Amino acid sequence: MTFSRSLTLPVLALSMLALAACSSSRGGHSEGGRSGGLRLPGFSNEVSDQRPAGIGVNSFLWRASLDTISFMPLDQVDPFGGVIITDWYANPELPSERFQVTVYILDTRLRGDALSVRVFRQERNEAGEWIDASVTPQTAIDIENAILTRARQLRISTLDN
């Protein structure tokens, strides 16, 4: 019995502090008419921070990249990270060489520097093994330019509507 009476005063004091913390003496609502509530770092109640979920890159560059390399089979696609990796593709007219393309979309804006393309090439030797071969830098530049041209076309077509 003594033990429960000795806890009564501290429990009562903590209860009063908890109720005092819930007081509405600071106005009761924060700006915008919403209740204040608990604020955690990294979480915001501001409307400007609430963006709809979608791809994390420029949609015109993304669509243009897929359109431009659509003749090649896709190996990996990450719309949130902005990476497209094709599988090896061999032109039926020249089956002794094959290509692989990796497209990186680096920004949410439609800009030339928001795009990076890497091209890999292999040739088949006499033993039938694929050996890495060099690719001229102009090949990647030509693919980048084709993607950018297609992205501009897509952007202009949305403005006309």
Number of strand segments: 5
Describe the strand arrangement of the main beta sheet, using strand numbers.
Answer: 1-2-3-4-5
- Architecture per CATH nomenclature, i.e. the level-2 architecture of the domain at 59-160: 2-Layer Sandwich
Query: Which overall shape is indicated by the principal axes computed on the Cα atoms?
Result: elongated
* Poorly predicted runs: 28-33, 47-52
SS element count, helices: 3
Average residue-wise pLDDT: 81
Percent strand: 15-25%
Question: Which range best describes the helical content: under 10%, 10-25%, 25-40%, 40-55%, 55-70% or over 70%?
Answer: 25-40%
Write down the CATH class of the domain at 59-160. Alpha Beta
The string of secondary-structure elements, in order, is HHEEEEEH
Q: What's the story with the biggest beta sheet? A: 5 strands, antiparallel
What is this entry, summarized?
The protein has a domain at 59-160: Alpha-D-Glucose-1,6-Bisphosphate, Chain A, domain 4 (2-Layer Sandwich). Helices cover 34% and strands 20% of the residues.
Description of the structure:
The protein is α+β, with helices and mostly antiparallel strands. It has a domain at 59-160: Alpha-D-Glucose-1,6-Bisphosphate, Chain A, domain 4 (2-Layer Sandwich). Helices cover 34% and strands 20% of the residues. The chain is built from three helices and five strands. It has helices spanning 2-21, 59-68, 137-160, and strands spanning 74-78, 83-86, 97-105, 115-124, 130-133. The chain has a five-stranded antiparallel sheet with strand order 1-2-3-4-5, with helices on one face. Strand 4 and strand 5 (130-133) form a beta hairpin. Helix 2 packs across helix 3 (137-160). It is elongated.
